[in-house]
Amino acid sequence: MKTIRFELNGEPVTAQVEPHHNVVELLQTMGLRGARESCGQGLCGCCTVLVDGLAVSGCLYFAAQLDGARVDTIERTEREGELDVVQQAFAECGAFQCGFCTPGFVLMTRQLLAHNPAPSEDEIRHYLSGNLCRCATYPEIIRAVQLAARIRKAGA
Amino acid sequence: MNDPRAKEPRNHGPQVGRSVPRKETHAKLTGTAAYVHHLVLPGMLHGKVARSRVAHARIRGIDTRAASALEGVYRVLTAADVGKLIPDPHYGPAFHDQPILAIDKVRFAGEPVALVLAYDPHVAQAAAALIEVDYEPLPAVYDEVEAMTSKAVVHEVLKPAGTFPDLKHLAGKRDTNIALDYHLERGDPAKAFAQAAHVFEHTFKTQQVLHLPLEPFVSLADPADERLTIHTASQSPSFVRIEIARLLGWPENRVRVQVPFLGGGFGAKLYIKLEALVAAAALIVRRPVKIALTMEEQFYTITKHAATLRIKSGVDSAGRIVARECEVWWNGGAYADIGPRVTQKSGFTAPGPYDIDNVSIASYALYTNLPPAGALRGFGIPQLVWAYESQADMIARAIGMDPLEFRRKNILREGRPQATGTPMRDAAIGQVLERLAQRMQWQAPFDRGSGTVRRGRGMAIGFKASISPTTSVAIVNVSADGSCHLLCSTVDMGQASDTAMAQIAAEVLGMPAERIAVVHPDTDVTPYDMATLGSRSTYHMGHAVKRAAEDARDKLLALAGELGVPPETTPIPDLFKKKYGMQAGNVIGMGSFVPAYAPTDHATGQSSNVTPYWMIGATGVEIEVDTETGVVTVTRMINVADAGKAINPAVVDTQLSGAAIMQLGFTLTEQMHFSEGQVTNPSLADYKIPGMLDLPAVIENEAVEANEQAGPFGAKGVGESGTFGVSPAIANAIEDAVGVRLTSLPITAEAVYRALRKAAGRPLDDE
Amino acid sequence: MRPFELLEPSSLREALGLLDTADETVRPAGGGTALMLMMKAGVLEPSRLISLRRIEPAWAEISQSADAVEIGALATLSAIEHSGIVRSELPVIARTLRTLANVRVRNVATLGGNLAHADPHMDLPPVLIALGASVIIASRGAERELPVAELISGYYETTLASGELIVRVRVPKQFARFSAYRKITTRSADDWPALGVAVALDREGPVLREARIAVSAAFDRPLRLAAAEAVLRGASIDDEAVLIHAGDAAADEARPIADERGSAAYKRELIRVHVRRALRDALDAQGGTP
């Protein structure tokens, strides 16, 4: 058991972790629900979290390695109250069904738009190809990403 | 589930036909939505399953000593422990054939043999790997056609559940793998074949695939207070309560089943999956027990039937189908699950949406030593459509008729009897076909490609009857401030049933759907529903909800009459205030629904009313084939369906494309591979479902203008319709593009390439 | 997953010291993604992992000299994908990375870990082999350089000795050499490849001076296809037939392994077609930017 300190959604936290625990296990013990382990292989994106501003698969990331890091999860928006532009676009386009993969898609879309504010459809598909939606809400998600890009541009 | 943040529209107008945003929007977009996945109870143990590594064997012994000795292990359970609690621990919706843990024998590789309980799931996992089972191997059977006559018998004796009259005659039958044989006879097929101008006979195959919801199976049982509460990711909470109560010999009200959101279901999370195991474990150790499967374990839990389908058609000189004979063998795996229902309820639509006077159908549910098969988004229909719509194009091509024209000439028109004799009502088969043809611009010239890239297009249309007869019950509870609860046991697994049901209630009560909170299934609170399956909820639960809302509305009107205030204009809160002198009280409306049904005759399969409604789905595709590699790229996919009147048009659109894309995976990329009955690709790394890059560049969906007269506000189900036509449309387009015919799923690039080489007279070296 | 000890040394020297042990289950971890997959599957149960993430940042740097690009073994795949040096000098690597695994894996996985894992389906080994890259390998008190082609010796096997660590990858600048990589998946687009084909062509005016063709995924390790390379040596770049001959030669000499992604006979045909197409891609791209 090791004590780690990191910043979680803007707040300093400490946690006790075992070396074999991954980030999803840790976050769930801290009461967060947004990152979920599904495929367990980093392929589906349900466990997406941001570590030092970069998206990673929480199911393939040792919890102990969060020591000293800045960690952001989907819950960060909830704390701030309002849905952000990406979430608003997902809501507007009905870009989810069962919702299990949705936090991962939202986080990845934020990353995409931060790097590339006006992605082409091909760029959207490539960037999000590592996130799976078994309900296959893909057409709606593509439209939501495009809408979010337009709202961001209009607001900039 | 209600979203308190959702703003009510100022002038709400009609609620049915409005694309109301899903009620769970905020919860799902912020990651706060509740799934069983997240649930933790104090003192909870985690269970990990030790599974059979062989397909068929007698168990000589199970050595749990090393597992029990591992530090941190609380208890290891085998069938012997379960038997002390439940003397006959077999469950199943059609047959009581599946043991909670394997008893004396294993019937498929992956079958649960023992359960390890520990506070730390990592410890339980490590201990499960230490369990040693001594097996005496038995001959195994894997192929559904071989299973008909195989000496390897999966179950010594058949044990039908007794709830289905058409299975009763199978009780006690020995030494057979045939779990059900269903027959339908109409007209005089032998004579009609003899007189037909052309006779065609083909055999088609589909592969074993699986649902793979991203939230794997998970159940948690809590044995507090001399009763049992089961939190489970289930599509059928009412069934779980009844079946667990039966196993325990308890009254239904000692078992409580609660279901929050599901992270996908698609037919996987029906009937009993983990619930019996988790219930037994929790009662044995007197502690809450949670079992959460991994993605890999889903491959050992429930799958979609592989099938072999032989179809023989007689056609007259004008291109009319005059006779059809269908034989279907369903590979049900080691336990029947709902397979016998698939065999019958889908079997009778095997001749397709065509008007054929002379029909003979034989449909067989077979046991094999593979993971069990159940219902997956279409209840067997996509397998049948694969066969009859592939053959439709093969026939049209052979007799030199345009495939659209051939379908036009043969489809079932309104009022004509389907193969069971039941007349078609409100089945917009012609309309769906014509809309598809228009969208595809079927008559316009088509770019056929050149060089190594050849283009083609194809269409297919299928239909499905509803599973009948089934019951739904709903309660509408109006509070004194005029807000409303809707209590129903329909499970929202992503199909937006919470929203659609709220819309139906709201329409009746004249309020915006946003004002209605939907209570998630809790069998202590929400009334009975058969299950969330087979595109039945909108119609069946929709009716029950409508009736419950009407009951509440009528009681509110009566209350106004009793109080002597104008019934139409008095706000609801004023009624309560006037009645009780303060904001107090409730008005409760109740509604239940079971459709009329006439059972099918056992010998002939005939029925005057086999289904309350028909679902129609058609798909057209444009594709490109790389002739040097066989790679097929679907460039455009058009899905058209008859959903009756759409309660929520945006959701209907999403259901259509979601179903079609799922079926695209079953058509091109998905396949469970086996070696000696052991799945060799049980992970998302090796079993490939469609992702963003696999989508057709263009996807269009349309629900035709239609009305189901007997449906709630003209609506009927649509969750499966998008799956029907996809596979044969693609095979038809491939033949259109490059002249080769594929008859087995999946259509891999290699299969297409091999067919091209064979057609060119240069088969690959290894053939 | 079984418990283990996780150590995070702060220098390469310290890491090499910790890796110098008789315990054969001890493993170095870069990003740890591949290790974690193997540990979850129970095929690897280390007693101790030596995480390299806290060693000197220099081991993650990407730099260039007059004739080579040097990539620190701890550079993440995503850092390499977006590196200005890589994009201008080795655009084929940046293009290859775009379809390697996914964004999240690329953000974490390191180049050194990727190469040491020696999964035959990896995209980078054939590309690096075609480009003539080598790895610099350190151990306690020693350092050696080895062509990537000699690093991977079999199915998940390398020639790394116990206690050795890949610390840098040196890729020669390509100058007039044109290259391309084709990743061929036969099921969904995000599948592991059934075949990877990397080619690099040295051109002198209208004549091909040298060709390197490295093929992966269809074998237990990436392989050069010498017969196909020989067909191209000295050929004219305008001679379309020679590309076809090269594809045929590649198919003739290859002995692909069957798996769920395709039979051996089919993979041989894929090699025939995609070697030809990769050569065409390289000639068309002429080393263009991604």
Task: Furnish the topology, listing elements before pairings.
The complex is a heterotrimer of chains A (156), B (767) and C (290).
Chain A: E1 2-8, E2 11-17, H1 23-29, E3 48-51, E4 54-57, E5 70-72, H2 75-80, H3 85-93, H4 102-115, H5 121-127, H6 138-155
Parallel strand pairs in A: 1-5
Antiparallel strand pairs in A: 1-2, 3-4, 3-5
Helix pairs in contact in A: 3-6
Chain B: H1 25-29, E1 45-51, E2 57-63, H2 65-69, E3 73-78, H3 79-85, E4 90-91, E5 98-99, E6 105-106, E7 112-118, H4 121-128, E8 132-137, H5 144-147, E9 178-186, H6 189-195, E10 198-206, E11 218-222, E12 228-232, H7 237-248, E13 255-258, H8 275-285, E14 289-292, H9 295-298, E15 303-304, E16 306-315, E17 321-331, H10 339-346, E18 358-366, E19 373-374, H11 381-398, H12 403-410, H13 429-440, E20 449-450, E21 453-465, E22 472-479, E23 484-488, H14 497-509, E24 516-519, H15 537-563, H16 572-580, E25 586-593, E26 614-626, E27 632-642, H17 649-668, E28 674-675, E29 678-679, E30 698-703, H18 726-738, H19 749-759
Parallel strand pairs in B: 1-14, 12-13, 15-19, 17-18, 23-24, 27-30
Antiparallel strand pairs in B: 1-7, 2-6, 2-8, 3-7, 4-5, 9-18, 10-16, 11-12, 11-14, 16-17, 20-21, 21-26, 22-23, 22-25, 26-27, 28-29
Helix pairs in contact in B: 11-12, 11-18, 14-15, 15-16
Chain C: E1 5-7, H1 12-19, E2 27-29, H2 33-40, E3 48-51, E4 62-64, E5 68-72, H3 77-81, H4 84-89, H5 91-98, H6 103-108, H7 111-117, H8 124-130, E6 134-139, E7 142-147, H9 148-151, E8 152-154, E9 157-158, E10 165-172, E11 177-184, E12 195-204, E13 207-216, E14 223-224, H10 226-232, H11 240-253, H12 264-285
Parallel strand pairs in C: 1-3, 2-3
Antiparallel strand pairs in C: 4-5, 5-10, 6-7, 6-10, 8-9, 11-12, 12-13, 13-14
Helix pairs in contact in C: 10-11, 11-12
